[in-house]
Amino acid sequence: MPDPIDILLEGCRRGNPAAQRALYERLSYQLMGVCLRYCPSRAEAEDALQLTFVKVFTRLDQFRGQGPFEAWARRIAVTTSLNLWHQHQQRGPHTEYEEAADLHHPDGTPFDQLSAEDVVRLMSQLPPGYRTVLNLYAIEGYSHAEIGELLGISENTSKSQLSRARRLLEERLLLQAHTPHYND
Protein backbone atom coordinates (compact mmCIF):
# COMPACT_ATOMS: atom_id res chain seq x y z
CA MET A 1 0.00 0.00 0.00
CA PRO A 2 1.47 3.40 -0.96
CA ASP A 3 2.46 5.92 1.70
CA PRO A 4 -0.20 8.68 2.03
CA ILE A 5 2.48 11.34 1.43
CA ASP A 6 3.32 9.70 -1.91
CA ILE A 7 -0.34 9.94 -2.93
CA LEU A 8 -0.40 13.64 -1.99
CA LEU A 9 2.83 14.29 -3.88
CA GLU A 10 1.49 12.63 -7.01
CA GLY A 11 -1.63 14.80 -6.80
CA CYS A 12 0.52 17.90 -6.34
CA ARG A 13 2.63 16.98 -9.37
CA ARG A 14 -0.57 16.87 -11.41
CA GLY A 15 -1.52 20.32 -10.09
CA ASN A 16 -4.46 19.05 -8.03
CA PRO A 17 -5.51 21.94 -5.69
CA ALA A 18 -7.00 19.55 -3.10
CA ALA A 19 -3.70 17.64 -2.88
CA GLN A 20 -1.76 20.90 -2.62
CA ARG A 21 -4.03 22.09 0.18
CA ALA A 22 -3.73 18.76 2.01
CA LEU A 23 0.08 18.86 1.75
CA TYR A 24 0.09 22.46 3.00
CA GLU A 25 -2.12 21.51 5.96
CA ARG A 26 0.08 18.52 6.74
CA LEU A 27 3.39 20.44 6.77
CA SER A 28 2.63 24.11 7.44
CA TYR A 29 2.73 23.95 11.24
CA GLN A 30 6.09 22.18 11.30
CA LEU A 31 7.60 24.39 8.62
CA MET A 32 6.30 27.56 10.26
CA GLY A 33 8.26 26.54 13.36
CA VAL A 34 11.39 26.33 11.22
CA CYS A 35 10.74 29.73 9.64
CA LEU A 36 10.10 31.36 13.03
CA ARG A 37 13.52 30.23 14.25
CA TYR A 38 15.31 32.09 11.47
CA CYS A 39 13.17 35.10 10.62
CA PRO A 40 13.27 38.26 12.76
CA SER A 41 9.48 38.64 12.89
CA ARG A 42 6.34 36.56 12.55
CA ALA A 43 5.39 38.48 9.39
CA GLU A 44 8.70 37.57 7.75
CA ALA A 45 8.31 33.96 8.92
CA GLU A 46 4.88 33.85 7.27
CA ASP A 47 6.45 35.22 4.06
CA ALA A 48 9.17 32.58 4.29
CA LEU A 49 6.55 29.85 4.77
CA GLN A 50 4.64 30.96 1.68
CA LEU A 51 7.83 31.13 -0.38
CA THR A 52 8.78 27.70 0.93
CA PHE A 53 5.55 26.21 -0.35
CA VAL A 54 5.90 27.95 -3.70
CA LYS A 55 9.33 26.35 -4.02
CA VAL A 56 8.07 22.96 -2.82
CA PHE A 57 5.26 22.93 -5.37
CA THR A 58 7.40 24.21 -8.25
CA ARG A 59 10.35 21.90 -7.49
CA LEU A 60 8.58 18.64 -6.75
CA ASP A 61 10.33 17.09 -9.75
CA GLN A 62 13.63 17.60 -7.85
CA PHE A 63 12.53 15.40 -4.93
CA ARG A 64 14.08 12.01 -5.63
CA GLY A 65 12.70 10.14 -2.64
CA GLN A 66 16.17 9.75 -1.09
CA GLY A 67 14.90 10.29 2.43
CA PRO A 68 11.68 11.60 3.92
CA PHE A 69 9.83 14.26 1.97
CA GLU A 70 9.39 16.23 5.20
CA ALA A 71 13.19 16.54 5.55
CA TRP A 72 13.46 17.79 1.96
CA ALA A 73 10.73 20.40 2.57
CA ARG A 74 12.36 21.39 5.88
CA ARG A 75 15.67 22.07 4.12
CA ILE A 76 13.84 24.33 1.66
CA ALA A 77 12.26 26.18 4.61
CA VAL A 78 15.66 26.67 6.26
CA THR A 79 17.26 27.93 3.05
CA THR A 80 14.34 30.22 2.24
CA SER A 81 14.29 31.66 5.76
CA LEU A 82 18.05 32.22 5.70
CA ASN A 83 17.77 34.02 2.37
CA LEU A 84 15.10 36.32 3.82
CA TRP A 85 17.27 36.84 6.91
CA HIS A 86 20.19 37.90 4.66
CA GLN A 87 17.90 40.33 2.83
CA HIS A 88 16.72 41.71 6.18
CA GLN A 89 20.33 42.23 7.29
CA GLN A 90 21.14 44.10 4.08
CA ARG A 91 18.24 46.52 4.62
CA GLY A 92 19.87 47.98 7.70
CA PRO A 93 20.23 47.55 11.42
CA HIS A 94 18.03 44.93 13.02
CA THR A 95 15.51 45.69 15.69
CA GLU A 96 16.92 45.32 19.18
CA TYR A 97 15.29 42.67 21.35
CA GLU A 98 14.14 43.13 24.93
CA GLU A 99 16.59 42.04 27.58
CA ALA A 100 16.08 38.70 29.31
CA ALA A 101 15.51 40.55 32.61
CA ASP A 102 12.17 41.71 31.27
CA LEU A 103 10.91 38.13 31.11
CA HIS A 104 8.76 36.68 33.86
CA HIS A 105 9.23 33.22 35.25
CA PRO A 106 7.05 31.19 37.58
CA ASP A 107 7.85 30.94 41.27
CA GLY A 108 10.19 28.16 42.25
CA THR A 109 13.35 27.05 40.51
CA PRO A 110 13.31 28.75 37.11
CA PHE A 111 15.53 26.18 35.43
CA ASP A 112 13.20 23.37 36.47
CA GLN A 113 10.12 25.26 35.39
CA LEU A 114 11.24 26.76 32.08
CA SER A 115 8.73 26.05 29.39
CA ALA A 116 9.60 25.50 25.76
CA GLU A 117 8.09 28.93 25.14
CA ASP A 118 10.52 30.49 27.63
CA VAL A 119 13.50 28.85 25.96
CA VAL A 120 12.33 29.91 22.49
CA ARG A 121 11.80 33.46 23.76
CA LEU A 122 15.30 33.59 25.25
CA MET A 123 16.78 32.16 22.06
CA SER A 124 14.92 34.75 19.99
CA GLN A 125 16.72 37.45 21.97
CA LEU A 126 20.15 36.28 20.87
CA PRO A 127 21.82 38.36 18.17
CA PRO A 128 20.64 37.06 14.77
CA GLY A 129 23.98 35.53 13.77
CA TYR A 130 24.35 33.63 17.04
CA ARG A 131 20.72 32.49 16.97
CA THR A 132 21.01 31.29 13.38
CA VAL A 133 24.14 29.22 14.01
CA LEU A 134 22.66 27.78 17.22
CA ASN A 135 19.46 26.79 15.41
CA LEU A 136 21.29 25.27 12.45
CA TYR A 137 23.68 23.29 14.63
CA ALA A 138 21.65 22.29 17.68
CA ILE A 139 18.16 22.00 16.21
CA GLU A 140 18.56 21.30 12.51
CA GLY A 141 21.67 19.13 12.92
CA TYR A 142 23.90 20.84 10.35
CA SER A 143 27.68 20.49 10.68
CA HIS A 144 29.87 23.55 11.05
CA ALA A 145 31.10 23.05 7.48
CA GLU A 146 27.50 23.03 6.20
CA ILE A 147 26.63 26.08 8.30
CA GLY A 148 29.64 27.90 6.90
CA GLU A 149 28.51 27.11 3.37
CA LEU A 150 24.89 28.15 4.03
CA LEU A 151 25.84 31.44 5.71
CA GLY A 152 28.97 32.27 3.76
CA ILE A 153 31.22 32.12 6.84
CA SER A 154 34.18 29.96 7.78
CA GLU A 155 33.80 26.76 9.75
CA ASN A 156 35.75 28.34 12.63
CA THR A 157 33.42 31.36 12.64
CA SER A 158 30.49 28.97 12.92
CA LYS A 159 32.13 27.24 15.89
CA SER A 160 32.89 30.58 17.52
CA GLN A 161 29.34 31.87 16.99
CA LEU A 162 27.92 28.66 18.50
CA SER A 163 30.17 28.97 21.54
CA ARG A 164 29.20 32.62 22.04
CA ALA A 165 25.51 31.83 21.53
CA ARG A 166 25.64 29.13 24.18
CA ARG A 167 27.50 31.40 26.61
CA LEU A 168 25.06 34.29 26.06
CA LEU A 169 22.05 32.00 26.40
CA GLU A 170 23.47 30.63 29.64
CA GLU A 171 24.03 34.17 30.96
CA ARG A 172 20.47 35.13 30.10
CA LEU A 173 19.12 31.99 31.76
CA LEU A 174 21.09 32.87 34.89
CA LEU A 175 19.87 36.46 34.72
CA GLN A 176 16.30 35.25 34.48
CA ALA A 177 16.87 32.88 37.39
CA HIS A 178 18.19 35.66 39.63
CA THR A 179 15.87 38.52 38.66
CA PRO A 180 12.93 38.87 41.05
CA HIS A 181 9.56 39.37 39.43
CA TYR A 182 6.61 40.70 41.34
CA ASN A 183 2.95 40.39 40.52
CA ASP A 184 1.45 43.73 39.47
TrEMBL record:
InterPro entries: RNA_pol_sigma-70-like (IPR039425), RNA_pol_sigma-70_dom (IPR014284), RNA_pol_sigma70_r2 (IPR007627), RNA_pol_sigma70_r4_t2 (IPR013249), RNA_pol_sigma_r2 (IPR013325), RNA_pol_sigma_r3/r4-like (IPR013324), WH-like_DNA-bd_sf (IPR036388)
Highest taxon, organism lineage: Bacteria
RNA polymerase sigma-70 region domain residues: 23-89
CDD domains per the UniProt record, alphabetical: Sigma70_r4
Residue intervals of the RNA polymerase sigma factor 70 region 4 type domain: 118-169
SUPFAM superfamilies documented for this protein: Sigma2 domain of RNA polymerase sigma factors, Sigma3 and sigma4 domains of RNA polymerase sigma factors
UniProt entry keywords in alphabetical sequence: Sigma factor, Transcription, Transcription regulation
Family: Belongs to the sigma-70 factor family. ECF subfamily.
Protein name in the entry: Sigma-70 family RNA polymerase sigma factor
